[in-house]
Each structure stands twice: as structure tokens, then as C-alpha cells.
Write a structure and sequence with these properties.
Blueprint lengths: L9 E5 L7 H14 L1 E2 L17 E3 L11 E3 L1 E5 L7 H7 L3 E5 H5 L4 E2 L1 E4 L20 H24 L5 H20 L4 E4 L16 E5 L2 E2 L5 E7 L3 H7 L6 E5 L1
Parallel strand pairs: 8-9, 12-13
Antiparallel strand pairs: 1-6, 2-11, 3-4, 5-10, 6-12, 7-10
Helix pairs in contact: 4-5
Length: about 250
């Protein structure tokens, strides 16, 4: 049976994008492999002393379709075969580490759900009224999020309000528990993109085939399936990691 070549058995994470020099990017990769950890980027407004493994920061005034409504502490990977990584590396750099997909699934990795901003909602929401043309996904999801956020605020206030009967308090408590699940398991995994963006466009997120892990990833060097580096760093890498038995791919 032939293998499908448009998806990969490995998921790849690229490192050091914020560094300007290749040497600095290599040091980031070395630190990750030495420590056995890929650290999730934490939301800006969360205090560093707050050490929960996974944090969701919600911005109720942001539009959901901007991908700015939620900030959460995740590690991102791309599901792209090695031979097709050129476009992705142009955006994220040439130093990467890949793990078997089934290994990452066991740590909680899931793919995101891509939504074209300019597309038409499959089911026209009744709260979007149009006399001409049609509502876009952006309009529908942004209106949903505005109403959902308003409801969340009301139930949050209800749960702590005094003088309410037990049934009302329990309803508010149940909704707030559901809200946490909806936020972390659904809304943070939506990713809106522009369908007319060219392949090399920085906002063509669909090309990334993104997967995410909530919180940090801890691993052993033996879990690393592939390392991607420029060829000029090959000898240095072999010296730094003589026990590495995985695949080494040279970034062009």
C-alpha cells in the first residue's frame, strides 16, 4: 500500500525565529535538546510566578476572527513532510526538531481547525441579518464570540452573587465549568486565515497544518525522530550530541 505524501508521520517544531544570527539559533536548539523540554510561550499578562502548566488568557474585546481573542501557553508543530518544508522554513527558520506523531498524540497534541475569514458560514446564524450578499465567517464567529463573552460575564457574576437560590448558583457554576472547557478545548484551537493569501504569504496559516500541545513538552533525546539544521552545523551537532541516533536533515 502506497504512503500518503501530503502529510507526515512526524510533527516538526522550528526554533530560534526571534534570533538574528544562525549561531544563536543553534544555541536555542542545543538548549532544548540538552534540557529535554520545549517550553510553551506564556501569555503576556500572566505573572511569571503563576506556574500552572497551561494557562488561557481571554480578551473579551478582541474579535475572534483576528486570532487575538485568546492567548494560551502552547507548543506548536507543523504536519509537513520534510521534502515540502521550504516555504515553512522561509517563515520560521532552518533549525527544527521533529517527533513521531503518535508520540505527540500521547502527550495531548491535536490539530487546529482552520476557518477562512472570507468564507460563507455553512449554516447562516439567525443573529446575522443581511439584506444584500451574505455573511462571512468573520462576521458570524465574531458575533457569536461577542454574545458568548457577554453570557460568560453574566454567569461569572451570578456565581458569586449573594441571595440566590441553590439551583441558580448550581446553573452558574456548571456554565462556568463548561466555559473553561469550551475555551481551552475548542475556541483556542480555531485558526482563521485569508483564503486568497499566496503560498508564501505570512498570513497563509493553512499551509502550516498546525498541531498544538497545551503546556510544555518534556521528552528524551531518544524521542527525537529528526533534527533539521543547516549543513554547516553538522559537525558541531555531532560533537554536541554523540548519542543522537535519529535522522539529521540539512536545511537548504
Amino acid at each position: 500500500m502506497s504512503c500518503q505524501h501530503y502529510v507526515s508521520h512526524q510533527l516538526t517544531h522550528f526554533v530560534g525565529r526571534a534570533k538574528r544570527r544562525a549561531d544563536a539559533r543553534y544555541r536555542v536548539l542545543k538548549t532544548i535538546l540538552d534540557s529535554g523540554q520545549l517550553l510553551a510561550k506564556r501569555p503576556k499578562d500572566i505573572e511569571t510566578r503563576f506556574r500552572a502548566p497551561y494557562v488561557v488568557q481571554r480578551h473579551i474585546r478582541a474579535r475572534l476572527s483576528t486570532n487575538m481573542a485568546f492567548e494560551d501557553s502552547v507548543v506548536c508543530f507543523c504536519d509537513i513532510p520534510p521534502g515540502d518544508l521550504a516555504i515553512h522554513m522561509e517563515k520560521y527558520g532552518r533549525f527544527g526538531v521533529a517527533f513521531q506523531k503518535h508520540f505527540l498524540v500521547g502527550t495531548g497534541a491535536t490539530p487546529v481547525m482552520y476557518i477562512p475569514r472570507d468564507g460563507r458560514p455553512p449554516l447562516m446564524p439567525h443573529f446575522i441579518k443581511r439584506t444584500e450578499g451574505f455573511a462571512t465567517n468573520s462576521e458570524a464567529f465574531d458575533e457569536f464570540y461577542k454574545r458568548y463573552s457577554r453570557l460568560c460575564m453574566q454567569f461569572k457574576a451570578t456565581e458569586v452573587k449573594r441571595g440566590l437560590d441553590v439551583e441558580t448558583r448550581e446553573l452558574a457554576r456548571s456554565f462556568n465549568l463548561l466555559r473553561g472547557f469550551i475555551d481551552s478545548e475548542f475556541l483556542t484551537r480555531l485558526k482563521f486565515f485569508d483564503s486568497f493569501e499566496p503560498d508564501y504569504g505570512t498570513k497563509n496559516y493553512y499551509m502550516e497544518r498546525e498541531w498544538r500541545i497545551q503546556g510544555n513538552l518534556t521528552f528524551h533525546l531518544s524521542d527525537v525522530q529528526r533534527v533539521i539544521i543547516p549543513e554547516g552545523f553538522a559537525r558541531r551537532f555531532r560533537k554536541d550530541f554523540p548519542r543522537y541516533d535519529g535522522e539529521m536533515v540539512f536545511a537548504e
